[in-house]
Amino acid sequence: MLRLTTYLQGLLSEQPDRFVPARKPSGPVVIWNLIRRCNLTCQHCYASAANKDFAGELDTAEVFRVMDDLYDSGVRVLILSGGEPLMRSDIFEIAARAKAKGMYTGLSSNGTLIDEHNVGHIASVGFDYIGVSLDGIGATHDAFRGLPGSFEQSMRGIRLCHAHGMKVGVRFTMTEENAHDLPALLKLVEDEDIDKFYFSHLNYAGRGNANRETDALHQRTRWAMDMLIDACAQSIRNDRPREFVTGNNDADGVYLLQWAQRNFPDREEQVKQLEQKLYSWGGNSSGVNVANIDNRGYVHPDTMWWKIRLGNVKERSFGEIWQDTSHPLMAGLKQSPRPVTGRCANCQYLTLCNGNTRVRAWELTGDYWTADPACYLSDAELGITPGSYSEEEHRLARRLRSIPIQPVSLDDQEVAPCAHA
């Protein structure tokens, strides 16, 4: 996750900040998919959630036991997700227990089930953050979510959370089919005084993989990043800084640095500090500072790796699973630098973005370590020598949306467990 606001505040300040290297967290941020059931069928859902019950999900007692294990393993940030987490009858018990343990506790919801009857309960739990997904305005959002009227229901939830004093944000996943609504969404965030805007690039997992032919073109991504950076900078200049973040494409950090170098040649010290901060951030942290537990207790390197099972918290402690590098993916993710090949290996910014999102490369090629085709910067921008990587990588980076794929159910497909899973 790239925190645009944090970086731009330092860049736009009159005096350079004192650079302080990022502290190593005690444990990873854990996104926990407590339930796979959902009342919507979103086109990009990595969990391929559906409005039905799924067998084998953890009960309340198991969740509490695992939560204790997470805390003992150093986890201090917990994001409760789904499916739709509000469809679990014990969601408030789970969240209250996490808060009682002193954990930062977020709720990742589609917002449609937040109403006048439960918003008081949501507020009383004390969630640190409520994230609601919006994939466009009105009919655009409804089409993505598969439910007419879902946009207005989600907006009702956002407004109710805001009215009850909760920090609430919007998450937008951009594709070629909804990019046209980005300007209107940014205006909505400003008009509604929403605390945070999370811009997510499409990742190739679940239905997001089945619909990857809709992924944004590289030029569209650059257009969107320019718009986001401008909106973020304007909010800072207006003394009303809003939290803008991007996720699922760590090339954003390189793009931001080069944007700053082009636009602020007179702020050499601030640009130099931005560069230090971005290298300290270090790009993609899947398998290191970000972890996922799915609805059945399987641990994954992040939410996009449900096809790779590292172990199950019903059978082994989270800490033991997380430190186990017997699976080649985890061994490589924890390696520094990561063992990327081809275009990524030849990039002068490798230690800034850390090889970007490995799951896209894997879904397209079967290789964890080949270049991420969603990197939208040119060879010249990245200091890559022409001809230093294969023609196949060159083709994938430009024709990734034309490769036909067949949607596969997560319940039926092959998974790649490690030796202990």
UniProtKB/TrEMBL annotation:
This is Pre-heme d1 synthase. CDD domains: Radical_SAM (cd01335). Belongs to the radical SAM superfamily. Involved in heme d1 biosynthesis. Radical SAM enzyme that catalyzes the removal of two propionate side chains from the intermediate 12,18-didecarboxysiroheme (DDSH) and may introduce the keto functions on rings A and B, yielding the heme d1 precursor dihydro-heme d1. SUPFAM superfamilies: Radical SAM enzymes. SMART domains: Elp3. GO terms for molecular function: 4 iron, 4 sulfur cluster binding; catalytic activity; metal ion binding. Residues 24-239 form the Radical SAM core domain. One of its GO terms (biological process) is heme biosynthetic process. It comes from the Bacteria. Keywords: 4Fe-4S, Iron, Iron-sulfur, Lyase, Metal-binding, S-adenosyl-L-methionine. Its cofactor is [4Fe-4S] cluster. InterPro entries: 4Fe4S-binding_SPASM_dom, Aldolase_TIM, Elp3/MiaA/NifB-like_rSAM, Heme_synthase-like, HemeD1_Synth_NirJ, PqqE-like, Radical_SAM_PqqE_MftC-like, rSAM. PANTHER family: PQQA PEPTIDE CYCLASE, RADICAL SAM DOMAIN PROTEIN.
